[in-house]
Structures are given as structure tokens and as C-alpha cells.
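hey so u asked for the seq, here:
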Amino acid sequence: MIASVVMALALVYAGASSEGCVDDRPLIDPQVRAEIRYGIVRVLVELRVPDDPAGRLTAISRAQDEVLGRLTGGSRRVARRYATLPLLALEIDSAALAQLETMRGLVTSVRVDTLSRPMEGPAGGRSTR
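ran it, C-alpha cells below
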């Protein structure tokens, strides 16, 4: 009886303590994994920056610098650094993806960067200007 009470308390404690844990591993888009097998993939890397409007631009720049500084070896090319969004557009290989996956707390996600067609005017018509 006492053993089952102790076991129940241990399970409750383990469940309660794991609820407070945050999984900060980057989310990797399955499409990135599928395409990277064939070579270089252009991706958008979303960065975690503090929610401080006053220092946001500085935080974005620092996070970008840190990611780029930690990407050693492998193939990577910066396609674009965004000044006001916590994003980097990169062209990477599988070695660079593996490094991005280790950047817990800094990289929140990696997804394929797809180009979109420009939007047309109202109701699908062309602009008259």
C-alpha cells in the first residue's frame, strides 16, 4: 500500500515537473528535410529574440550575427538579412541544417523559402496605373 502511494506521488511529481519544461528545439519543416537530400536548399530561419520593442532591431541583428558565427563548415550562403524581422534567408546543405538544429533557444524554426508571385490588383484585374 505504501509503495503504491509513493509510486503515485512520484508519477504526479514527474508529470508536474515536465509540464514546466519548454522544448526549445528548432522546428524543422519536413519539406526542408526532403529537399536537402538533393543538395542546397533556400530556407527561412526564424530567430528567437526578446520581446523588447525598444531593443528589437539590435536583438535581431545580434541573433543573426550569432547564427552566422556558429555556422561553420558545410555550405551556407546568406540570401538576405532582414532588418526588422527575426529572420535569415539562407542557402544551406545538410551539414548546415544539422548545425541549425543544435541552436536551441536561438533558432525557432527552419522552413523552405518559397517565392510567391506578385499579387494582382483588385478582383484579379491588373492595375490601371
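Residues 2-19 form the longest helix (18 residues). Residues 1-19 have pLDDT under 50 and may be disordered.
lmk if thats what u needed
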